[in-house]
Amino acid sequence: MQKRTKILITCCSLAIGSCLVYVGYRQLTANDSSLLKNIPFIQSDKEKESAFKIKKDPQIPLIQEQLANEQLVEKKELMAKGIQLFQHKPKTAEDLYTCYIDVPVVLQAKFLSVIFYTEEGKQAQEVPAKQIGAHTFVMQTDFFKKQSYRQAIVLMTKDGNYQWQNIDATIEFSQTAHSMPLLAKQLPTKQKKEIPANLLNKHRLHQLIQAAQNQNWRERWQQQQIGFERSDNIEAAVFDYSAIDDGKFSCRLQLASLPPVGQSYRLAIWRKNSGLADLHQYPFKQIGSRDFVANFNNRAHDNYAEGSFISYLLANAAGHVSSKVVQLNRQLFIPKYILKVQRFELIPQNIAQGLYQIQLVLNKNERVKSVDFDVWTKHKGKDDAVNYVTNTLVDNNIWQQTIDVRKVHFDDVNLTIKASVDLDLTGRKEMETMQTTIEKQTQPIYVNHRGKQQFAPENSIPAFKQANYEAIETDIHLTADKKWVIMHDGSLNRTTNGSGEISQFLAQQLLSYHLKGTGEQQYAIQELRIPSIEDYLAICQAKGKIPIIEVKTSAFDEVAYRNLIELVRSYQFAHTVRFISFHYQVLKELKKMMPEASVMYLSKDLNQQVINQTKKLGSRAGVNVHWQALNQANVQLAHQAGLQVGAWTVPFDQFSKMTYLGVDYITTNDA
To answer: Which domain holds residue 552?
Structure first.
């Protein structure tokens, strides 16, 4: 291996505290050597200097053994990526702080300055450097005497565009001072303290400082070209790091001549801290006569591992199982995966109908499998909290979900929305929470009373299936064996071909009877069986209807009601169901057992006593009153108390009046 010279950084002490410095290396040219030979500390301490000479990589024999390599060829690096920076403390109080910066040729720096700033980023100084060699710049300043600066950034222009490089290795300064005879010949005794106006751009400085504080990893260049000797038939390899933030990069090989038939190439990569146990190989795919490309993804490395990786190029000749190892890019650095919210908002779609759209835009969507939106109102206990999940991107970068606040979040106009993401192999990560205010919806929810009974017997399966409004109202009773069945009356007499009280029958016995009424001749007997609560909930679920369930039973049986609640929850109606009843105590017990449910107290009148009593039911409560008892004054009183107002058995010609009064539900027998 060809020997290289390392630049030794001597540590000097300053009262200002420590500066952060990133130290790189490259082979010194003759010009560089002549330039640096007059600097005393570089020529001193030969033993320490020898410690920086390149040694053989101890991993190479392990690779050779692991992959059964026939031959091991070690290549010199043509270009080191790092910027060298070494500093000198002033010899006296009148001398200047001096900093040499050595820049790789590949960066083609036309201008360079050093930015010093306080750790919190409130103050910054930019000092231009002077080019004194093919790759070397020097900067001098005395502002350290007045301010303590802890970090620095090297700023370069390449074809007029600014780029920045973090300086991220701590240097401690000693008391030793060194004279600078070389600089004395090339620079004035002191630079002006004032920075030229065209160099100091506060907005640009602020952006650079923020970028440095947010990213604690070394700057990587979008493309880096590495050459090989002709004996390998590899002319160059180009690395594309544009997706490195997502743990991805690609490598393109350019061959000097056409490859032998059957020749193949692979990248062998493993995480430095994990060793060869993390070894994965990535094949090169031929994309041209002399061009190959390989794509790397850190997903397979300890579930998106970050940090330092080691890579080698493997070449396989036709018919050979063993590989030839060529050092390609020994050190790779995968930065921390940072996911940020760029936009998060609630957009009205139809305010009158209570339709809104949640939109979330992230800085990247790589690894994001789905997005969760948890939505609730401000009421204590989040009893209306609903989780919405979307796994589809709109326009390639928007996660969105439509919500209907009339169905669920009707209790308040103040919404809280929390966005979380489900990341591949990582799991759930909370992103952001917002508080927002929605407008009061003005359009009531229309309800089919006992289904669409103009075309089928009331409370029948055909009546439910033909319902054309947003909600379906029904009535439930308990059988002798504590099963819930659908029926308005407490007996079979009026609406079936049987007779007797429902509470005297077992649920199985009721299957012997069928419903009668409007249009019964059009339906099969099986369709007209007495429905169970499961039949009703299944139809509501299939048709996307809001279930409004009137509990007819006055006696409270805890086991039976717990079964009812479990059924409602199992059909995903926990937050949209409305339990209504003339029996206040039943609603009170239901609300205790199912806090997230909505309850509405049925009444033939709406007065202050009814309002006060209903308010005691807690959040998500309302009154459901005969339409003729409603007027603008009592509807307004109920709304001011935080209650919703429903009107039942409203004829078609009174719809507009009820809407004008501001009722929230219109239950009707009319189509």
So the answer is: 445-668
**CATH at 133:** 2.60.40
**Looking at the domain assignment, is residue 64 inside a domain?**
no
Domain count of the chain? 4
Q: Which residue has the tokens 């959040």?
A: 619
Considering 181, 214, 247, which residue would you say is the last residue of a domain? 214
The two structure tokens encoding residue 113 = 């300055």
Query: Is pLDDT at 278 greater than 90 in this prediction?
Result: no
Query: Where residue 265 sits, what CATH number does that domain have?
Result: 2.60.40.10
Q: Report the alpha-carbon distance of residue 361 to residue 342 in Å, rounded.
A: 5
The first and second tokens of residue 158, run together, are 């390449």
State the chain's maximal CA–CA distance in angstroms. Answer: 118
Picking from 214, 238, 265, the residue at the C-terminal end of a domain is 214
At residue 40, the 3 state secondary structure works out as helix
**Per-residue pLDDT band at 325 (split at 50, 70, 90):** low
Question: What confidence category does residue 161 fall into, taking pLDDT thresholds of 50, 70 and 90?
Answer: low
CA pair distance 402, 408, nearest whole angstrom: 13
Model pLDDT for residues 283-315, shown as the tens digit of each residue: 999 999 999 999 999 998 988 988 888 887 888
Most confident of 165-179, 252-266, 522-536: 522-536
pTM: 0.61
Strand intervals (E) in 29-150 = 71-73, 84-88, 97-102, 111-117, 124-128, 130-131, 136-141
Structure tokens at 229: 């000797």
Is 536 in the same domain as 551?
A: yes
659 and 572 in one domain?
yes
Q: How many CB atoms lie within 10 A of CB 234?
A: 24
> What length is written for the chain?
671
Q: Look over the chain and give the mean of its residue pLDDT values, rounded to a whole number.
A: 75
**Shared domain check, 374 and 325:** no
CATH number of the structural domain spanning residue 653:
3.20.20.190
Facing residues of 289 across strands? none
Burial class (CB in 10 A: 0-12, 13-18, 19+), 376: buried
Nearest to 54 by CA among 3, 91, 113: 3
Query: Which amino acid, one-letter code, is at 641?
Result: A
The tokens describing 79, both together, are 């270009």
Q: What is the pLDDT of residue 307?
A: 84
Q: What is the C-alpha separation between 481 and 514, in angstroms, rounded?
A: 20
- Same domain, yes or no, for 502 and 603? yes
In a domain, 7, yes or no: no
